[in-house]
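Appendix B. Worked example

We walk through a single record from start to finish. Start with the input: the chain for Alanine--tRNA ligase, Weissella halotolerans DSM 20190, length 883.
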Amino acid sequence: MKELSSAETRAMFLRFFESKGHSIEPSQSLIPKDDPSLLWINSGVATLKKYFDGSVTPKNRRITNAQKAIRTNDIENVGHTARHQTLFEMLGNFSIGDYFKAEVIPWAWELLTSPDWYAIDPEKLYVTVYPDDQETKDIWLNVVGLPADHIYEEVDNFWDIGEGPSGPDTEIFYDRGARFDAADPKENHPGGENERYLEIWNIVFSQFNHLPGLTNNQDYPELPHKNIDTGMGLERLVSVFQHTDTNFETDLFWPIIQQVETISGKHYGENAERDVSFKVIADHIRAVTFAIGDGALPSNEGRGYIIRRLLRRAVVHGRKLGIQKEFLQQLVPTVGKIMASYYPEVLANADYIASVVQSEETRFNKTLSDGLHLLADVMNDAKQNQGEIAGDIAFKLYDTYGFPYELTVESAAEAGLTVDQAGFDAAMKAQQERARAARGNKVSMGVQNALLTDLKIPSTYVGWSQLVVEDTTLSALIVDNQLVDQFEPGKQAVLAIFDQTPFYAEMGGQVADRGVVLNQAGEVVAKVEDVQKAPNGQHLHTLSLVKPLTVGDHYRLEVDQAYHAAVSKNHTATHMLDQAIRNVLGSHSTQAGSLVTAEGLRYDFSYNGAVPADKLQAIEDLVNEKIIANLPVSWVETDIESAKKMGAVAEFADKYGDQVRVVSIGDFNAEFDGGTHAKSTAELGMFKIVSEQGTGAGVRRIEAVTGQGAMDLFKQHDAWLQAVAQTVKAPQLSDVPTKVAGVQKALKDAQSQVVSLEQKLAQQSAQAAFNQVTTAGDYRLITAEIAATSMDALRATADQWKQAALSDVLVVAAKVNDKANLLVAVSQQAVKNGIKAGDLIKAIAPAIGGGGGGRPDMAQAGGKNPAGIQEAFGKAQEWLSEH
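Next comes the structure step. The output line below is what the pipeline stores for this chain.
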């Protein structure tokens, strides 16, 4: 067996399958594109789903890749096991309806055992197969020559993630030797719970269609086109070549661990519990570095929440190693250097990534201190509550302050306390269900459409240079997923393919063209409602028929030119906005999605926080400056390398063919693009941002309009301003600011008078109530409903009460519109005796249909039931009597 670095292992895998006719696909962004079913790219096949479900046919049906991926369902296991990682690389080879079992199994064996490749000892390799898949077993036995005692049947060897392609699989294991045997001899076999037999490769034969409603794989029909999907974990394989006990001692992690040793002054390998912290830090900083590099940013939801959680776990484990200062940002360049051979962009962006990490770590250090104080309070309360920390409190420490559950358990144990694990698990489950509900019920992979996948009828798009095709042949009509020769008008939509078409198919966020189909007599026979790309690239027109259509007849196609022009202008504006954002906010603000319509444009981009008003204005000004400059818009088809030399920007998540189309806007912007555009920037007329807002974790959205849309918006703004001018009686529009300022001052003065009168009324009402002191147990109590319209007035009343020292406890309430406000104040002596305002408010607030909280000496609550105020007073009397 060869001793290989991680870079050599990856490169050799890709070279091997390239030698077998595979195209090497670059590793795609961790952020899924146009796939709402995934939070992260979580496997090698995740970026290729459109090929597997048949919605797109690749130029080469043989593909290989090394794909970075993130899985977060086992975060708590990271560091405690030898193999769990959040970020990992999956090496894979894929066949999209090309080769199958007879080819892929011998290839796998060749790569693993041939002296020209990995040269692993065949005696150390074992496989598992699905019991019903005797074909695979026969290939291992009779073609490869694997001994029968190296083959195990496992009922779990069936890959099925829901609707779509599925099928049996065969897993390949490496025998690490008897010293890794499990304590239970029954588990010492490939696929058992042991460390001896390490799974290094899984080959999936996706040959069945898991159709909706089917639950038994015996009922799944065969796929029209069978596929191969394999996955080999790079980290695991490298641990074999480098003879390490775990993935963490390989060259993928070891330099990070060594740097953490230097920072902490502690040494890896001396203490098993301490080693967990080294592993967690090394794993988490890799995942965070790659995720931020791909445009994700820390936040409180979605992907951003995962990043924040990983960062905070790493900081907490740094504290366990005695690291009290910020340190994670120092590890980012190390991650970049380790991965530089295949992911040079990480090292190139290391400064930016490190700045985001440092900012988040600084923020968390304060939160961590707050959390430690909260934990101390929680443990003090637990000592008075049967020695147990409530599960929901433990979850709050975990969810809000980033405390791993085991840290809370450990701290509790040191204080002689326990933690309600069932309550914690229930809170965790509720959060996971909320997350699933937020993502919605999205299908992970579609079902193959054999008709469209097999349809090879040629069709040419000519819309770059013409919007009318005088004479084109109707090549195919599809109704209810069936090819027909003719169809009459009706309620049903019809799909059509023409041998030439000027209609743009929806792609890259740009909507499809609209228009009409005419017969040779000049009569409209159909309206074009939508155009999509079929799996083999044809433009598939959705038609609403006016007259019959017949395959083979000749027709005239006309694009709605006004609609097309409006969409094209907004697409050009999207490119200009993209460039302006990068110029003003920085190159790390990358595109996260777009929508281009005739009415306007929507552009999503990565940015941490709202765009400042001055920056937003600078972006708008820059786009308008380039519109006024009347820059030419041109395009050229060329190879990828030439395009990059032109400075063309490519979306990293996109795949490109040998030839690419580059759209240039003067010397301002050049991008890989397949959409339609204006001929010059002056055609846009003007550009106006309508709104800027957040749409999710670290993603902002700008909506904007151009041309007539911008003019209409300015007219609307002018109408609004004229209405304000009339209201404030401004003779000229230029007088509006002064008039509005005058109205605001008058309103502020009037509000001050109202507040002053309210306070006087509240004082009078309070003075009367202060004379009515009752006794509740060992405490003097005043309860009063006063005339007040805000919580501020109640607090002012409490301040008067405190200065006069009239009782031990004050409960004061006010009816505000249809709601109730409630305030509790407790004297310092009563607080020392154990009476806390927060506890009392929680006991009485339900009477007004609400809840609240606060400090030991003052707490407040709001509710929707003013009729319950007197009941709240009664409950206060009862509660004090009991305490």
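Two observations about the output. The first helix runs from residue 6 to 19. Residues 257-439 form one domain.
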